[in-house]
Amino acid sequence: MTTRPFAARLYTGGALAAAATAVGASALGMSVVWVVLATVLSLGLGFCACRCLVVQERRHARRMSELHLATIEALALAIDAKDQTTPNHIGRVQAYAIGLARALGMPESEVQAVKTAALLHDIGKLAIPDHILAKPGPLTPEEFQKVRMHPELGAEILRSVQFPYPVVPLVLSHHERWDGRGYPAGLKEHEIPIGARILCIADYFEALTSDRPYHQALGAAAAADVLSQEAGKALDPRLVDVFLGILPTLAADVEPAHSPMSPGTPHLQAREGARIGAARAAPAPLAGVFEHIAVAHREIHALYQIAQTMGTGLTVADTMTLISSKLSNLVPFSACALFLYSPSREQLQCRFATGTDSELIQQLTLRSGQGLTGWVARNRRPLVNARPSTDLEAMGSKAPTVLLSALVCPLVFNDRLIGTLGVYHTDASFYHDDHARLLDRVCEQAAAVINNAIVFEQTQEDSLTDPLTALPNTRSLFQHLARELARAERHKSEVALVVLDLDDFKEINDSFGHRAGDWALREVARVLRSTIRPYDMCVRYAGDEFIVVLSDCTRSEAESKRVELQAAVGRLCLDVDSGRRVPLAISAGIAVFPYDGDDYDALAAKADRQMYEDKSRRKHDARHRGATA
User: Fold this and answer.
1) Distance CA 463, CA 410 (A)
2) How far apart are CA 482 and CA 500, in angstroms?
C-alpha cells in the first residue's frame, strides 16, 4: 500500500468532511447558518492542508537543488584540489568576485549567482585530460585549444541544475573579452553578462598574482598596473576602476596564493573577524578526501617533472643535480646521495651528494653488503629509516653526523644493479612506506637515465683517452691547450710545451715484438704522468710521441722539467728474454708561449725541431761513446 504525504491526506480528509457536513446538515434539517459555518470550517481545513502540501513540495525541491549543487560543488573542489599549477584558485577568485559584486551594489540574488559561478567556473575542466592540466610547461596550440573548451563544457554540465539565479550564462562567458576577442562566442562589451565580466576580472587578477607554468607571480601593485592596461581591451573599464578601488581591502582579506591551506577549503578572512567561506565549509571527512586528491596529483605532477628533467642531463652529476632539485617536492630530504656500483671491484662509490653533511657522504666507498648502502645493493631491497651513521661506521669513520634517518633504494636497469639512491633527514624515523613507494618509483625511471649518463661519460672519456696508456689523447690536448693559452694571454703568463719521442722504439718492436713495445709505452706514460704536477697534462700524441703541457711555466723551469722527465725515463729498463735488460731513453724539445709562438702549431713546430736536434745529439753522443769504448 502506498503511503501518501500527511498534507495530502489532510487535504483529502478536509474536503470529504466538508461534503459530509453539508449532506448531514441538510438531512438533519439544520439551519443554513450552521451549514455554512461547518462548510467554511471544513474548507479551511482543506486550504491549510493544501498550503502545507505546497510548502512541503517547495522544501523538497530546494533540498534536491541543494543536493545537485552540493554534488557539483564537490566536483569543483575536487578539480581545484588536483590542479597543482593553481592550488586554491577557486577560493581567491570567489573572494575577489564577491567583493566586486557587493561594491557594485548588486542585488543579493545576483551576488549569490556570482558567488556560485565563481565556485563552478572551472567545472568544465572535468573534461580536460589530466596530462594537460598538470603540464608544468607552456601548452601547445592544440592543448590550449582543448583547454578553451572548458567554459562550454562547464555550461553543459550545469544546465541540468535548477539554480534560483542565473549561473550558467556566467560560467559560459567568463572568458569573453570586452573587445570581443574572447571565447567561446566572441561577445563584447555589454553583450557579456555583468556577472561574467566580474568573474573575468577576478580570474585575471588571481592568475597574475599566482605562480603559473608560463610566468611567476606578480605583486598586487604590478598586477593592478596590468589590469589598468587591459581596461577597455580584455576587461570592462568601469568594473576595473571599481575593483582597483576596493583592492587594498580585498588584498588584506584574501589568503595569498602561496598560503598553506587545506585543499578544498578555500576561504577569506573578513575584516570583522568572521570567516566567509569561499565555498561551503567542507566537513572533516570531505576535506580529507580533497587532501588525498591533492596529494595524489602532487605525486603525478612531481613524477612528471622528474621524468621531463631526467632527459635533459648528459653527465651523472648534471642528471643528479636536476633529479634532486625535483625529488624534494615528492620525498623531502636534508641530504641526497647517489652511489654507483663497480662489478669488477664489488664496490659502491658515492658519485653525487648534496645537502647536509654531503661532504662526509661523498668520501664513502663501500663494499657490497657493507653498511646500509651495501645491504641495499646486495639484497636489492629498500631500507626505511635506517641510521645514516651505519655507512660511516662501516668505513671506520668516527665523524659525527646530524642525519638521523635514511631511505635508500636500489637502482636496477635490465636486471643489472647500477647503484643506490638515498635520501637522508635530520629527524629520526622521518620516512614512511609512502616515501619508500615514491622513491622506488623514481628509481625505476632514474636507473635507465643514470645508466645512459654513465655510458655517455665512458664514451666521452674514451673519445678523449688513449686506450693503451690511459693518457689523454690529441683531442684532449687541443681542448686543454686552447684553454691554457687563452688564460695565459689574459693573465700575461707563460705556457711551456714539451715534445718527447721514445728513442729506438722501432727497434724495440722489431726485435722484441709489439707486446714489449706496448709495455714500454705504458711504463713511459706512467713515469711521465707521475713526474709532472697534478694540474699539468701529459698526452700520448701519436705512436711513440708524447706532449707535456706545463702551465705558468718559464723557460728555465721548462728546461729543468725536460731534464727531469728524460732522467725519469732513462731509469726504466725493458726486461726481455734470457734476463736481458734494455734501457729506455727519450728525446725532448721545448717551446714557450708567447715567445716561441702564440698557437699550437707554432709552439709544436718549435718544440719538435728542438726534439729532433736533441735526438740527433744523443745519437751522436751514443756513437761517440761506442767508438771510444
Assistant:
1) 30
2) 20
Cα–Cα distance measured from residue 266 to residue 210, given in angstroms and rounded to the nearest whole number: 15
For residues 499 and 589, the answer to whether their CB atoms sit within 8 Å is: yes
Determine the Cα–Cα distance for residues 131 and 133; give it in Å rounded to an integer.
Answer: 6
Report the amino acid identity of residue 516: A
Cα pseudo-dihedral 273, 279, 284, 288, rounded to 10: -120
**Mean pLDDT of the 557-569 span:** 95
Partnered with residue 215 across adjacent β-strands are 212
Q: By the 8 A CB rule, do 484 and 496 touch?
A: no
Provide long-range contacts, Cβ within 8 A and 24+ apart, for 531-535.
Answer: 531/561, 531/564, 531/565, 531/568, 532/561, 532/565
Q: Which whole-number Å values give the CA distances from 517 to 465, 467, 511, in the listed order?
A: 19, 15, 10
Query: How far is residue 322's CA from residue 352's CA, in Å, rounded to a whole number?
Result: 12
Q: How far apart are CA 123 and CA 168, in angstroms?
A: 11
Cell numbers for 223, please give them.
598586477
Q: What sign for the dihedral angle of Cα 248, 100, 128, 298?
A: positive
Q: How many CA atoms lie within 13 A of 178 on its CB side?
A: 20
Q: Dig out the grid coordinates for 380 from the structure.
A: 636489492
Q: What is the DSSP letter of 401?
A: -
For residue 533 the three cell numbers come to 704536477
**Amino acid at site 56:** Q
Q: How far, in Å, CA of 318 to CA of 310, rounded?
A: 9
User: Is the separation of the CB atoms in 136 and 213 below 8 Å?
Assistant: yes
Q: Report the length, in residues, of the chain.
A: 629
Residue range 445-464, pLDDT digits in tens = 888 888 888 888 877 777 78
∠ at Cα 390 (386, 392), nearest 5°?
A: 140
d(CA 219, CA 87) in angstroms, rounded, equals 18
A 10 A CB-CB count for 15 gives 16
The answer to whether the CB of 419 falls within 8 A of the CB of 339 is: yes
pLDDT digits (tens, 9 = 90+) for 156-201: 988 877 788 889 999 999 999 999 999 999 999 999 999 999 999 9
Give this prediction's pTM.
Answer: 0.50
- d(CA 595, CA 440) in angstroms, rounded, equals 60
Name the DSSP letter for residue 184: S
Closest by Cα among 334, 341, 319 to 388: 334
